[in-house]
């Protein structure tokens, strides 16, 4: 038998009341006596009645739901960020709808269109590595749709942004390798136009400059898919190994790139750190369990999700248009094996 959700009409018929009386009782209206309210609530519980969210959104002109777009949920950084998002959203009575772009601009645009058509109240997004055309996001923003960028931000759209100090995190990681005695540090990084790529490569270069080291641009390898394609990371590692003066260490600028480098080096039968030094950005707890655990830059992912959600809900619930926007910059931690 097909499931049929209980309605206000069902409660009204069972109790011999009008639907308007039941509706007001469920809303705890002062017009309804305490005895009637209790009668209605008890019967609603028996029928497992829940308000229709679509009907409520039409009435209140709000769905009390927010959309989230990330590149990949399986990425430990994004999964922790989503936990932070849900911790705030659930407490405030909002439902979270999560989607993955898989680093595809086309999928990101389809998801934007789908979420907007479902009347979500706002959007949290970390743009894909393929996102260069900002027109779809700009169109939503200009229409007054609340958007907050986190991690991978877009400077061209004036709204709240939450990121980590990517420059300092990369600077610290590269400096750590230099302090361990490595002299020729290569870098494997994400798509060139992403904000995190520009900031982390800049931190890497600054650390080398501070140490008086000048390395050729060929030691920086860009992976368009950000580690989602292992073959792409493996090719980048092989290109570094085939350099006339190959690096003695690698700095990887994201979770997937860091683990991808570890796989590629293992396949090349190169031990870490004996044959090749390695450090990178990673929020995976599995790093600590490896035979040769490495030093990593850890981001406050859960906190980033919380802060981004709080800012988005401020936009959604503001009675007036928000014109002053914040950029929240969180600090990273350099985690060394114990």
From TrEMBL:
SUPFAM superfamilies (UniProt xref): lambda repressor-like DNA-binding domains, Periplasmic binding protein-like I
PROSITE patterns in the cross-refs: HTH_LACI_2
Cross-referenced InterPro entries: HTH_LacI (IPR000843), Lambda_DNA-bd_dom_sf (IPR010982), Peripla_BP/Lac1_sug-bd_dom (IPR001761), Peripla_BP_I (IPR028082)
Positions of transmembrane segments: none
Domain HTH lacI-type: 6-60
Coiled coil region boundaries: none
Superkingdom in the source lineage: Bacteria
Range of residues in the leader sequence: none
GO MF term set: DNA-binding transcription factor activity; transcription cis-regulatory region binding
Keyword terms of this UniProt record: DNA-binding, Transcription, Transcription regulation
PANTHER family named among the record's database cross-references: HTH-TYPE TRANSCRIPTIONAL REGULATOR GALS (PTHR30146:SF109), LACI-RELATED TRANSCRIPTIONAL REPRESSOR (PTHR30146)
Protein's UniProt name: LacI family transcriptional regulator
């Amino acid at each position: 038998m097909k499931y049929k959700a209980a309605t206000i009409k069902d409660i009204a018929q069972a109790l011999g009341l009008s639907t308007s009386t039941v509706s007001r009782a469920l809303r705890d209206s002062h017009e309804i006596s305490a005895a009637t309210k209790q009668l209605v609530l008890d019967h609603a519980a028996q029928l497992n009645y829940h308000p229709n969210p679509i009907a409520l959104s039409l009435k209140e002109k709000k769905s009390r739901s927010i959309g989230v777009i990330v590149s990949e949920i399986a990425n430990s950084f994004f999964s922790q960020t989503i936990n932070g998002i849900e911790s705030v959203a659930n407490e405030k009575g909002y439902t979270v709808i999560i989607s993955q772009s898989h680093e595809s601009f086309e999928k990101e645009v389809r998801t934007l269109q789908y979420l907007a058509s479902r009347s979500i109240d706002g959007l949290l997004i970390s743009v894909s590595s393929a996102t260069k055309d900002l027109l779809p996001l700009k169109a939503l923003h200009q229409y007054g749709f609340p958007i907050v960028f986190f991690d991978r931000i877009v400077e061209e759209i004036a709204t709240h942004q939450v990121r980590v100090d990517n420059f300092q995190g990369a600077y610290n990681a590269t400096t750590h390798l230099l302090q361990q005695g490595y002299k020729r540090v290569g870098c494997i990084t994400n798509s060139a136009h992403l904000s995190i790529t520009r900031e982390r490569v800049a931190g890497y270069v600054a650390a080398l400059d501070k140490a008086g080291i000048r390395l050729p641009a060929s030691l920086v390898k860009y992976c368009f898919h950000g580690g989602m394609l292992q073959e792409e990371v493996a090719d980048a590692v092989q290109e570094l190994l085939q350099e006339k003066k190959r690096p003695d260490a690698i700095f990887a600028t994201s979770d997937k790139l860091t683990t991808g480098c570890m796989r590629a080096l293992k396949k090349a039968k190169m031990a870490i750190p004996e044959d090749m030094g390695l450090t990178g950005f990673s929020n995976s707890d599995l790093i600590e369990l490896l035979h040769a655990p490495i030093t990593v830059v850890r981001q406050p992912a859960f906190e980033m999700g919380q802060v981004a959600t709080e800012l988005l809900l401020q936009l959604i619930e503001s009675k007036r248009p928000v014109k002053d926007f914040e950029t929240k910059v969180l600090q990273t931690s350099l985690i060394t094996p114990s």
